[in-house]
Specification:
By secondary structure, the chain is an alpha/beta fold. It has eleven helices and eleven strands. Helix 1 (13-23) packs across helix 7 (190-209) and helix 1 crosses helix 8. One of its GO terms (molecular function) is carbon-carbon lyase activity.
Length: 288
């Protein structure tokens, strides 16, 4: 009997796109059935802290807190390249040093960067879908928009700061912005973990190469919150060739993110990303 492995991802367009080659049966693991759960990214961060899922999408900023229980996967990653989350406010307003701001979660990458850049801001957390309206209503002075919200927001609002610019200022300017990825429970046997990671790598690659077929299917099934044009733009940003498998420059970017978090007191230990991957070379050695 095949094992059932829980795979949790966010309901935003890039995660749905990268996973659904598996859901539609185009790609399958060898010795398991994947069952998927879609939830808000901060809810998934909190669930990973509790060890609820076998494989889970996370904000990269969370990873140092779960490194002992979860290995970092090399696939289904989202990075910003000249873009990313946006700090927005009402048009024409001026923010004080201690402005009240809505963030999408305590352990999000945008949250980490924001707290480093704006240490005096008063933070409240809410679902990312509620942030735009909270700023319009005056519940908060500003908010950080993520996911598809960065593409279309009210004309009553304007961008105070691009989080990409914050990242450039903090990191030195030559690295992509690490936003989200996936991790896998360390208690899973190594040969199975390697298969599951390879399955996910293949799923992201197949989705990316068959985007013109898969994207309309997702819209027809009602799985995406945006229209076809917005989806196309969003996938250009966050589900592309650079999402299939982590590259050397992406490892450097992750290490810089973890270094910044450690330097500013958010992480107890300095984490090097490549030390926490699944040792996929094991399969090659075992075959010799």
């Amino acid at each position: 009997m095949l094992k059932t492995i829980s795979v949790a991802h966010s309901p935003d367009a890039d995660d749905i796109f990268m996973y659904y080659a598996i859901k539609f049966g185009w790609v399958r693991p060898k010795d398991a059935n994947f069952t998927n759960i879609a939830d808000d990214i901060e809810t998934l961060n909190q669930a990973t802290l509790k060890g609820e899922y076998d494989i889970c999408a996370i904000s990269f900023a969370l990873y140092p807190f779960v490194k002992d229980d979860y290995a970092l996967l090399k696939t289904a990653v989202s990075f910003g390249e000249g873009y990313g989350p946006k700090l927005i406010k009402k048009k024409g307003t001026r923010l004080k040093k201690n402005f009240k701001v809505a963030l999408s979660g305590e352990f999000t990458t945008n949250g980490l960067l924001f707290k480093i850049a704006y240490p005096e801001a008063r933070i409240t957390y809410m679902n990312f879908l509620e942030i735009e309206q909270a700023v319009i209503d005056g519940t908060v002075d500003a908010g950080v928009l993520i996911h598809e919200s960065i593409l279309n927001f009210s004309e009553q609002l304007e961008v105070e700061k691009e989080l990409w610019d914050v990242w450039v200022e903090l990191s030195g300017g030559d690295l992509p912005l690490p936003l989200g990825g996936m991790c896998i429970r360390r208690s899973i046997p190594l040969h199975s973990a390697i298969d599951y990671e390879n399955t996910l790598i293949k799923a992201v690659d197949v989705a990316n190469k068959n985007r013109k077929v898969l994207a309309p299917m997702l819209i027809d099934e009602g799985l995406i919150r945006v229209d076809a044009k917005t989806l196309d733009t969003y996938l250009d940003l966050y589900a592309n060739d650079n999402s299939v498998e982590l590259s050397d420059i992406q490892y450097k970017a992750l290490d810089k993110l973890f270094e910044l978090g450690h330097k500013h007191g958010f992480y107890e230990n300095l984490v090097k990303s490549q030390e926490f991957l699944i040792p996929s070379e094991y399969e090659e050695l075992r075959a010799k």
